[in-house]
Amino acid sequence: MGPKIELNYVVSVRDDAASGKVQVTLDRSGTLWLTDRELADELATSLKDGELVAVEYVDQAKQIREVFPPVVDRIVALSEAGPEEPVEVQAMKRPSLLELRRDHPRFDELYEFLKECHRDKAETALAVFPGSRPIQDARLLSDKPK
User: Fold this and answer.
1) What is the DSSP letter of 83?
2) Residues 29 and 57 sit within 8 Å (Cβ to Cβ)
3) Cα–Cα distance between 56 and 133 in angstroms, integer?
4) Tens digits of residue pLDDT in 41-88
5) What distance in Å separates the CA atoms of residue 46 and residue 42, rounded to the nearest whole number?
6) How far is CA 128 from CA 40, 72, 82, in A?
7) Which residues make beta-bridge pairs with 73?
């Protein structure tokens, strides 16, 4: 199975001296690991600031590969889901279109969620690799754990 990308709030970041790794607990993805100290510092800052982050990780190894900030915006337009074409998503503050591809493993779930966000004019966090268009995950900004 390939890498997963999910939007998460950081619950904890701690060094595991025995393994030489950093253990990161996330509100949705659970406990993951990393060896990159720079990424660990980034996640510790996100924890301190209460910021949402997009995390790419290898599911079976539970190893974090990359962390990046989400696109936070309101969805102003959403195309219909055709049989083969990606759904085009226009965010308010972003000049270029984003897209939800049909081959995304959670296409139906994410498409319904994006339609709700558009209807409700909700501030939405979108996991989109910097410089790219495909949406990997989506979450309401107000969906912060207590």
Assistant:
1) S
2) yes
3) 16
4) 999 999 999 999 999 999 889 999 999 999 999 999 999 988 889 999
5) 6
6) 21, 10, 21
7) 124
* Domains of the chain in sequence order: 3-68 (2.40.50.340), 71-140 (2.40.50.340)
Asked if residue 115 lies in contact with residue 78, where contact means CB atoms within 8 angstroms, the answer is yes
Are the C-beta atoms of residues 57 and 24 closer than 8 Å to each other?
no
Query: Is this model's pTM higher than 0.85 or not?
Result: yes
- List, in order, residues 6 or more apart from 15 with CB less than 8 Å away: 22, 23
Q: Which two structure tokens, joined as six digits, stand for 56?
A: 């790419």
The residues, ordered by sequence, that sit 6+ positions from 36 with a Cβ below 8 Å of its Cβ are 64
